[in-house]
Q: What sequence folds into this?
């Protein structure tokens, strides 16, 4: 399949923005409609019928809500409709589940529902919801993504934007949102999902960009489905809408908006999964262990892990670690050395550590918790490097293969990570290396999940130096980058 130039550009530039902490998302009504919530027109059908307005006769839905409020003397009816229709919980769509896993710090929406909050809650990721101007003054939760609900939330129906008055008085009542949105549009790359650029709210958002940048605006992306023949009754109507779409798409360049066209909305999750995979490819999980009391090759294992951590930092990648014995601390030490050498301590963004809780003497570890941590580490990492992998058998006091590292290998394969065992460091890494050589796990092409047999044999060579290991891993990582 031929991939459009704008799609290639999106898959290259937007993941880079996310990796650098400069990616944001704007969630429009189309995402909620795809989850089962009504469109604005459907939502206000009953309200319109009571006023004698038939469905399809009026496109200014804010005016319809305004007339209902004037006719009834209050907004109670309109807000009851919102509560009944939007207050129900429809399944969270795959699109938002993926968004919740991406390193997004800021999400904007004009939707009232709680789909985004529930998507984040599904993976226990913290999110701060800002649905009123007073919320903007609250201290942000450390590490939480901020969700700005520009038009309010179903939880606070007394403060939602719905009528003509609400829109016209937006700057006086909710205007504190606008400079912040303008700042994000000016300094970040925004991905627009499920939006219609005929929406007056979206047009206002675009006008904010124009206010700040008369030329060379920041680059943003919008995933859009162009008109399809099956959407229209006649060829003439289809051709007219297609022409309008092409002109509209070109006009969006004035706002720095790149239109990424899809044939069907069902393509959006897979497109976002590609973004997720490209972000993950820049994250390296160094897995392994080597208890100090095991002795043996501990100095070599430490040096290899430290050198790999240094390589991860020097190459601008993020380090993922479960803080395993010796290997974890060594890789983190090397990573920190790399950050110090370039004058940066961007640890909050670039070091993703999930230490495994160790049981008290005489108690068994929480296997379910450990399994969940391994799954999370594999989910956020695209590359897993195995170093060593030894533990002490409590029954004999002798060193044995660390079953946990083998478990991490299986989890990494299930998550389709690229796995690189350093066989020369022994332990589980050697066993993993042996199992991959000659296996049917792809070693070439876009689906590659491991080095070639020759590279694995080289990494398993007993006399290979640390410098040679680093050089070979660098070549493999460069190949992964080109593949992505």
A:
């Amino acid at each position: 399949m031929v991939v459009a130039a704008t799609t290639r550009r999106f898959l290259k530039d937007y993941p880079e923005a996310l990796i650098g902490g400069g990616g944001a998302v704007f969630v429009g009504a189309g995402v909620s409609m795809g989850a089962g919530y009504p469109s604005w027109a459907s939502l206000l059908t009953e309200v319109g019928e009571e006023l004698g307005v038939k469905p399809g006769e009026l496109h200014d839905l804010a005016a319809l809500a305004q007339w209902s409020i004037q006719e009834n003397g209050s907004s109670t009816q309109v807000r009851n409709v919102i509560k009944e229709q939007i207050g129900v919980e429809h399944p969270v769509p795959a699109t938002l589940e993926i968004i919740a896993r991406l390193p997004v710090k800021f999400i904007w929406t004009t939707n009232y529902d709680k789909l985004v909050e529930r998507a984040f809650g599904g993976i226990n990721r913290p999110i701060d919801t800002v649905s009123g101007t007073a919320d903007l003054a609250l201290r942000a939760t450390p590490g939480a993504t901020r969700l700005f609900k520009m038009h309010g939330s179903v939880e606070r129906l007394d403060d939602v934007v719905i009528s003509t008055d609400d829109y016209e008085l937006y700057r006086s009542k909710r205007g504190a949102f606008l400079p912040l949105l303008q700042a994000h549009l000016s300094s970040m790359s925004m991905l627009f999902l499920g939006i219609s650029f005929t929406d007056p709210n979206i047009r206002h958002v675009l006008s904010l960009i124009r206010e700040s940048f008369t030329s060379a605006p920041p680059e943003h992306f919008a995933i859009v489905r162009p008109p399809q023949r099956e959407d229209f009754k006649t060829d003439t109507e289809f051709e007219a809408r297609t022409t309008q779409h092409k002109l509209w798409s070109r006009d969006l360049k004035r706002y720095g908006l790149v239109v990424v066209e899809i044939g069907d909305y069902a393509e959006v999750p897979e497109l976002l999964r590609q973004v997720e995979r490209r972000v993950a490819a820049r994250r390296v999980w160094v897995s392994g262990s080597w208890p100090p009391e095991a002795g043996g090759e501990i100095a070599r294992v430490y040096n290899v892990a430290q050198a790999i951590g240094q390589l991860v930092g020097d190459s601008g990648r993020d380090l993922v670690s479960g803080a395993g014995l010796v290997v974890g601390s060594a890789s983190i030490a090397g990573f920190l050395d790399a950050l110090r050498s370039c004058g940066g301590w961007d640890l909050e963004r670039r070091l993703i550590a999930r230490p495994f809780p160790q049981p008290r003497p005489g108690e068994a570890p929480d296997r379910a918790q450990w399994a969940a941590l391994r799954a999370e580490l594999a989910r956020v990492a695209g590359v897993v490097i195995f170093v060593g992998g030894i533990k002490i058998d409590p029954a004999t006091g002798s060193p044995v293969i660390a079953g946990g590292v083998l478990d991490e290998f299986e989890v990494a394969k299930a998550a389709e990570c690229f796995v690189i065992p350093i066989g020369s460091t022994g332990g589980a890494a050697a066993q993993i290396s042996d199992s991959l050589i000659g296996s049917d796990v792809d070693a070439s092409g876009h689906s590659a999940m491991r080095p070639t047999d020759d590279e694995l044999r080289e990494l398993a060579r007993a006399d290979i130096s640390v410098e040679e290991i680093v050089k070979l891993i660098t070549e493999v990582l460069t190949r992964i980058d080109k593949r992505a």
Summary: The radius of gyration is 27 Å. The CA atoms of residues 19 and 279 lie 6 Å apart. The domain at 281-483 is CATH 3.40.50.450 (Rossmann fold). Residues 466-483 form the longest helix (18 residues).
